[in-house]
């Protein structure tokens, strides 16, 4: 499964990049995120509860960041296990482009899933993934706006 999109965030690139690397901001914005632990600048551990169609699962996973292109771009890869519900692995490439007082965030992501989740059908998985991504970026943009006002 592949996803890509772009969103305009009302903040300068440096602030957007910093927020994307702040576990507290990410935990607030990731749908279903119960815990996000930063082990290093390149390694995170997450616990997320997701409901996909009739299947609800708690995923535990690890995320690795490659920040060699920072602050213009970075990539991440991750894998998670949802027990009987299945497993997921994937990655994303993110680019940040400053346009005046705003930042355009573009991403391209790929994911593979297995187990019960994979049996739900690619259309349901794809639509759920799009909704979750949209929810994350809407929350992230709102968080950046709230931070700017504060």
Keywords summarizing the entry:
single chain; 150 residues; alpha+beta; 29% helix
Describe what this molecule looks like in 3D.
The structure is a single chain. With 150 residues, the protein is an alpha+beta fold. The chain has one domain: START domain (Alpha-D-Glucose-1,6-Bisphosphate, Chain A, domain 4). The chain contains three helices and seven strands, in the order E-H-H-E-E-E-E-E-E-H. The radius of gyration is 15 Å and the shape is globular. The termini are far apart.
Number of strands: 7
| Mean of pLDDT | 91
Classification by helices and strands: alpha+beta
Sequence of secondary-structure elements: EHHEEEEEEH
What layout of secondary structure does this protein have?
Elements: E1 2-9, H1 13-20, H2 23-29, E2 33-38, E3 43-52, E4 55-66, E5 73-81, E6 87-99, E7 102-114, H3 122-149
Antiparallel strand pairs: 1-7, 2-3, 3-4, 4-5, 5-6, 6-7
Helix pairs in contact: 2-3
């Amino acid at each position: 499964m592949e996803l890509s999109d772009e969103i305009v965030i009302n903040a300068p690139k440096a602030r957007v990049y910093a927020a994307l690397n702040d576990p507290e901001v990410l935990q607030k914005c990731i749908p279903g995120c119960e815990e996000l632990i930063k082990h290093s600048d390149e390694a995170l551990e997450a616990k997320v509860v997701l409901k996909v169609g009739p299947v609800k699962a708690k995923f535990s996973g690890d995320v690795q960041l490659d920040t060699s292109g920072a602050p213009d771009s970075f990539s991440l890869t991750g894998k998670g296990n949802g027990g009987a519900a299945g497993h997921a692995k994937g990655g994303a490439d993110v680019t940040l482009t400053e346009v005046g007082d705003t930042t355009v965030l573009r991403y391209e992501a790929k994911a593979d899933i297995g187990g019960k989740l994979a049996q739900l059908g690619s259309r349901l998985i794809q639509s759920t993934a799009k909704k979750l991504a949209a929810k994350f970026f809407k929350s992230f943009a709102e968080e950046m706006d709230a931070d700017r006002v504060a």
